Amino acid sequence: MKKALLLGTTGVAVALAMLAFGFVAGNPQIARAGTAQPVETAAADTKIDRTEVEGIIRDYLLKNPEVLLEVQDALEAKQKEEQRIAHLGVIKNAKDQIFNSAFDGVVGNPNGKVTIVEFYDYNCGFCKRAIDDMRALTKSDPDLRFVLKEFPILGPDSQKASVVSMAFHLMKPEKYGEFHNALLGGQGRATEAAAIKVALSLGADEAALREKMKDPTINEALAKTYDLANKLAITGTPSYVVGNEVVFGALGQEVLTEKIEAAKAAL
User: Fold this and answer.
1) pLDDT, mean of residues 46-58
2) 87-95 long-range CB contacts below 8 Å, 24 or more apart?
3) Hey, CA dihedral for 194, 199, 202, 208, is it positive or negative?
């Protein structure tokens, strides 16, 4: 974080220096300000002492370092707002894919007025901890619809476990919540074998399950999710879509509750 800030402020300093040098270069009277040379003579002399200008800028920034932080904050605020606006467009154009995909499991109230979508990976440690947030939120809010979107990004085991998960969901959607809780909340790494074991414990027929795992629409759905995540700038799990907002990371039940309440207020 410190390194990122340092790089950012360094970039800001360079930008300020370039702007200042360009401004001074276009204003020879300013370039020679503070010298003994008369103004009318300075107007005829457009040669700029680059070292002198850079020294002035350096001295100013050293005496006023807070300027760098102010510019950095303004830049981050601008970028955040641009990202928010971009998210609004993506959510509007991909509304059904985000909130109503046939491949996504739903827990809580399937007809709830407010929907929260979680992008998760079965081998994500933060997702394992965040499962308690999902349980608490759906228990405390009877009007909450919680959508579980498979986003396996942590290697082949995660991808294979998600294929089993999606196949099971297509076969037994009414038991998907139990499957999800058992696999994500279980000990050890989620693998294809582990996922199949959970599915069989919930009544799935192994032959039928393995056949359903070959359904090409499963991989097509995963490809669409990867593309959607890219458009929403989602690179990690868990990440959420609540109303018209994208929320990154396992921020906890309190923060998610605030986002849900904001989404309700916007209805």
Assistant:
1) 80
2) 87/232, 87/233, 87/244, 87/245, 87/246, 88/244, 90/228, 90/231, 90/232, 91/232, 91/241, 91/244, 91/246, 94/228, 94/231
3) negative
Q: For residue 127, give both structure tokens.
A: 């997702």
Judged by DSSP in three states, 122 sits in: coil
Report the C-alpha gap between 87 and 241 in whole angstroms.
10
Structure tokens at 145: 């619809």
Under a CB-based contact definition with an 8 Å cutoff, are residues 29 and 42 in contact? yes
Structure-token match 């491949």, residue found? 103
Specify the pTM. 0.72
pLDDT in tens, 85-99: 776 778 899 999 999
Q: How far apart are CA 250 and CA 118, in angstroms?
A: 10
Report the chain's mean pLDDT, rounded to a whole number: 84
